[in-house]
């Protein structure tokens, strides 16, 4: 018994015109041509597939993707902006008097908690620090002219939220000044709005035009911070819900 053909993974047909020949493809195994008693014969040797490939079924693949998705969701839940209060089930009352009494008790508890919280002074989170430096008269005049000619501006229609500070830093990436229009400010409150924006963004207010527009300068040694919108600012969606 002699082997006349080297082992191979797949069998290649010798004569494709003969329909009586049957060929079999083996994913895990070998096919060899041997001569036994003067007659050629084919012998197949099947091998068990590796353990990983054997159990890699469609169901296991779905379970693997499901676990990866759950890990991503768990990581996103720890992000500070996604943290919130879970809603409680609504309590049912027999009549209107019970409902009013329950609400009065809850309001008294909330008022006592507010009084306790007012005893503590919590400092506000500061934005990126900027080294104080004085601008000369020529530099200030040049910055004002450059900002007034610029077409890009930001409008505060609902309030100062994280997206406004983020857009300011993205604009400061290529420009030195930015124009902010405070539509929510009442007459005489534009300076208070400018101080709040300067605290969160780290910019320097150069000029206040009228009762709405403020021009901010990023600073000479400006470096874009890693976390651009401060954590204590609300998101745009929360401002829409409040309004």
Chart the SSEs and their pairings.
Elements: E1 2-3, E2 29-36, E3 39-46, H1 51-54, H2 58-77, H3 96-118, H4 137-149, E4 153-156, H5 162-172, E5 177-182, H6 190-201, E6 204-209, E7 213-217, H7 236-242
Report what the structure shows.
With 243 residues, this protein is of the alpha+beta class. Among the domains are: 41 residues, no CATH class; 106 residues, YhbY-like (Translation Initiation Factor IF3). Helices cover 37% and strands 16% of the residues. The chain is built from seven helices and seven strands, in the order βββααααβαβαββα. The strands form two sheets. A four-stranded mixed β-sheet has the order 4-5-7-6, sandwiched between helices. Strands 1-2-3 form a three-stranded antiparallel β-sheet, with no helix packed on it. Strand 6 and strand 7 form a beta hairpin. It is flat and about 110 Å long. The termini are far apart. The N terminus is likely disordered.
Could you give a quick summary of the protein structure above?
A four-stranded mixed beta sheet has the order 4-5-7-6, with helices on both faces. Among the domains are: 6-46, no CATH class; 137-242, Translation Initiation Factor IF3.
